[in-house]
Description:
single chain, Rossmann fold, seven-stranded parallel beta sheet, three-stranded antiparallel beta sheet, globular
Amino acid sequence: MKIIRAKNYEDMSRKAANLISAQVILKPDSVLGLATGSTPIGIYQQLAEWYKKGDIDFSEVTTVNLDEYYGLTPQHHQSYHYFMQHEFFDHVNLSPEHTFLPDGMEQDHEKECTRYTALIYALGGIDLQLLGLGHNGHIGFNEPSDYFSTDVHLVNLTESTIHANQRFFASADDVPRQAYTMGIRTIFLANRILLAVSGKDKADIVRTAFLGKVTPTIPASILQLHPDVWIIGDEDALSEIPKGAVV
Length: 247
């Protein structure tokens, strides 16, 4: 595990984008696992800026997203389809046929979970998976549990996650209560994992997840066992990580 300290959110975004850019340059047909939320927005903006300068080409890249709210159409302004389109896909030369997300409108849960899991494996797996980190240690929408989840599944969101996401909705009542998400095994099978984290409010969970014991009650802690994990955080997010633990 490599922990890299950035000066601030902008520096964190630039450092994380640089790792993704290097992946695409070295392997133009990379499969990228992508995340949503406020943390990766700066990363996507930096990648789009480099694309416009001609520094990076996404034409052969395939993307698979971590998750999608259950019950939201792709056109809903809070769906992750909408987020990815407006924050990233519209600004680079990714082929629409090569961008994939779970179908939040599929009511047959088993069918959708099987379909999306099979899709990821058919692509040969994920070369680089981008993650954020929830306040309760969730990655994707894998919430604290008694066991580590496996492949794509439908999850019931915890109240803390609903509360954290209500800032994107008119009220907490509007936040979906379920979501499709890649499971821990799906994420763990990625060749490289990049977790980006920002803000003083994440400092405690960063320390607990990456310096504490591996436990399904802190889903992100499983990343301690992955052979190629990069954690890039700003000064605030890494403020409880000893200096000697940071590259």
